[in-house]
Design goal:
Elements (H helix, E strand, L loop, with lengths): L4 E5 L3 H14 L3 E5 L2 H11 L3 E5 L7 H14 L4 E5 L7 H6 L4 E4 L7 H15 L1
Parallel strand pairs: 1-2, 1-3, 3-4, 4-5
Helix pairs in contact: 2-3
Length: about 130
């Protein structure tokens, strides 16, 4: 059975590398990485990931517009989006869902449970739809 595909959008190189390794090596995901949301939108169309993990903070000037475009495109392709942010605890699950996200993961994160959290969110979402 092939590994599930995950698109990781993270602007910070060292964190992108750590997240990619955690998810790829510890979580058996097939990880595609992107530095920018705009690039992630193009990669999303090309690689058709099973889930997108995106850092909520980005240096892109038009980040909010790009995030909306990513959500629109992922919705059209039925790809759930998970936020990763130091501010993830600011939102409840219903608020995240209302904003168009599957869920959120807090930074700092536990590398050994990161993959399981994403799988759990996806399984819970599938069981409630």
């Amino acid at each position: 059975m092939p590994s599930p595909r995950l698109l990781l959008i993270e602007h910070e190189a060292s964190l992108r590398e750590v997240l990619g390794a955690c998810l790829g090596e510890l979580g058996d995901w097939d990880v595609t990485t992107s530095r920018f949301i705009q690039e992630g939108i193009l990669l999303c169309k090309k690689h058709r990931p099973d889930v997108i993990l995106v850092d909520a903070s980005t240096p892109e000037a038009d980040a909010l517009l790009l995030m909306e475009q990513l959500k629109r495109d992922s919705l059209n392709q039925a790809i759930p989006i998970v936020l990763i942010s130091a501010k993830a605890d600011w939102f409840t699950a219903p608020e995240l869902h209302q904003m168009g996200f599957l869920g959120a993961i807090s930074k700092p994160f536990n590398p050994s449970t990161l993959s399981a959290k994403i799988h759990h969110m996806m399984a819970y979402s599938a069981s409630t739809s």
